[in-house]
Amino acid sequence: MTTTPSADIDQIIAALWTVLPRDGAPLGLHEPEFGANDRAYVLDAIDSTFVSSVGPYVDRFEKGLADYTGAKRAIAVVNGTAALHIALLVAGVEPGDEVLTPSLTFIATANAISYCGARPLFVDSSDINLGLDPEKLAAGLTETAEIKNGQCYNRKTGARIAAIVPMHTFGHPVDMDSLLAVAQRWCLPIVEDAAESLGSFYKGKHTGRFGLVGTLSFNGNKVLTTGGGGAIITDDEKIADRIKHLTTTARQKHAWAFMHDAIGYNYRLPNLNAALGFAQLERLAKAVNEKRALAARYKTAFASIPGVRFVDEPPQTQSNFWLNALLLATDSTQLLTPLLEKTNAAGLGTRPVWTLMHKLPMYATCQRMDVSVAEDLERRLINLPSSPRLGRSYAA
Amino acid sequence: MTTTPSADIDQIIAALWTVLPRDGAPLGLHEPEFGANDRAYVLDAIDSTFVSSVGPYVDRFEKGLADYTGAKRAIAVVNGTAALHIALLVAGVEPGDEVLTPSLTFIATANAISYCGARPLFVDSSDINLGLDPEKLAAGLTETAEIKNGQCYNRKTGARIAAIVPMHTFGHPVDMDSLLAVAQRWCLPIVEDAAESLGSFYKGKHTGRFGLVGTLSFNGNKVLTTGGGGAIITDDEKIADRIKHLTTTARQKHAWAFMHDAIGYNYRLPNLNAALGFAQLERLAKAVNEKRALAARYKTAFASIPGVRFVDEPPQTQSNFWLNALLLATDSTQLLTPLLEKTNAAGLGTRPVWTLMHKLPMYATCQRMDVSVAEDLERRLINLPSSPRLGRSYAA
């Protein structure tokens, strides 16, 4: 005997169409937009012949990112994964360490931990903001960890726990005040994965600015794109200089000599891509407004639909609503796959959340805390088309 | 009492000026060139909105690279260092292994070995082609290595020796026949670092095609640039598929689901950069001809200058002469620094060879064979301005 789930697919899709334009243009999950200056700056970079590692657009783009986020420094790199890798290195993560991170995240977070020779230690997520849950983290650490000589250790594995990497899922800020308290209690630096949250603020301060360092991504599906790209933001000048050094093969400045003083990386963003990013910065505030207007429409459209909850921005935050998300009621999880199938077949770019990290073969043996909320969210979540243009006619 | 060195700085600089144009344009070490199609294809990529990980220019560029080199497959990646990293991984290099590579190379070769958790084992170079010397390698292996169960081990450290990474220095092909024989004798796969040798052939076959895999670089100073970029070439379809998988976060193909089956990398070349590369391919053959014409002029100009030797292409090879190089006689090494200073002060882009890898702090403790030739070359070598345009008026 089965009970009728409270959610109804046709009703959900009908609600979607009250928000989305039926103009025949693609309704992908997140489409970038380009204009006259995107073309002009990229051509300028080509005409200058400075397309590669040196060029004025890298400096301009970094300055623009620092201005927008309020960070003292921004260092542009080749993508968000590279940003995370270097951020973890400068936070002191070493081979054999463990790093706390949500199981509900994009693969880059866990992979960057692996690149350092460390292992992820998975934490549960909040069903309010979809990000790392500080309360469950605190409970898990009490059960698992101890402080020795001012450093945090895993009592079960004996490994040092070296950092916490929260990720602001779909642009919604994590509860940073609570997380900072846990981090302080357990002597842990925070590396903030703000790949999805450029334009998202927690209590008026840009995400990525609460930890020691924060990382951004400018992949093609992000609110600002450089083709591929990323950045690290920080208020610490010394750390910023070290990041610049490590991301440019750790070569010492000299007119012609090649002397490198550490194992460095070829992670700098080419000037060609920075030129695109510099143009994209000009439209960033507008794009965030359009995305927020789209989210407001979704919120209204789904308010009266039974069996679904639109994921809204948490209190005291301003989200960029990078990807709008809907949660099915717990009695309606069997509708997730048919809903994905039906919407994608109708040309709507929807998708489920990422497979949880602890379910992937290479991370299945990593230790995890109770991740029951993440497992619940994985069964219930669907992302909706979220391109800025879809909110344009609604934006103030 | 000092003897007068055989080389004379003013005579060398005068010979340089018989080759180089005095047109006031920069005489950098290697300047890229762009034309109408570079601008057109990049704009086309922007207008298509496919600037990032997906897009037709990546496929076109990969196909064009395969056609030019004759390799069955080419996989475009974010830069030459990333190409080397993945090439070593697919060659089976694992943490704790040692990898044979010349001490005279750019830092990327040694760093990529480190990224795999392996350590470089440094080999000497030939003063004919400036690349790894197979004879000295063979002698060193006889002294150091043994075969156990079909694998090569270092008798001194106990570590497995996992691969050989020759590098075609300044575009001059390594003596591949001899190297292949050594590799076979010691059961070692070859990962060919062809970062500098796009357009260079050994016995009619493109460099990078002799090993299991070969790697290319498209940095701004290379004969073909994508801003930043690289590629891996191979004739093995299975390895090519694995490279494509590993460089795209090891995500399994699916319309919407995110399932990754290995620790992968975000190393794919953005479509924006591939568009530039596709345009650059159209001028590659011409650029190589111009560079070869420039080299021929340098060769003539220095033929009668005492105390210097122009580094020519080795027999049975066709070099792209990526960077032209001059070797000072052993009795004239004290002239290297003044020559660098004087030429750079005069606006000529010259530079010494890279600091040898075994002299850098992070690689100083790595084991090395006799590297006396490399140490000699380091004291004697100076690179000369090598941009394609400098050879244009000389090219057929």
Describe this structure in words.
Two copies of one chain form a homodimer. Chain A is an alpha+beta fold. The first copy, chain A, folds into two domains: about 10-35 and about 285-395, Aspartate Aminotransferase, domain 1; about 35-280, Type I PLP-dependent aspartate aminotransferase-like (Major domain) (Aspartate Aminotransferase, domain 2), CATH 3.40.640.10. The first copy, chain A, has eleven helices and 16 strands. Chain A has helices spanning about 10-20, 35-50, 55-70, 80-90, 105-115, 135-145, 175-185, 235-245, 270-305, 335-345, 370-380; strands at about 75, 100, 120-125, 145-150, 150-155, 160-165, 190-195, 200, 205, 215, 230-235, 310, 315-320, 325-330, 350, 380-385. Chain A is globular, with a radius of gyration of 21 Å. The mean pLDDT of chain A is about 95. The interface between A and B is large, with 67 and 67 residues.
Show unreliable segments of chain A: none
Overall morphology of chain A: globular
The strands making up the biggest β-sheet of chain A line up spatially as: 3-2-6-5-4
Secondary-structure class of chain A: alpha+beta
Largest sheet, strands/sense/barrel of chain A: 5 strands, mixed
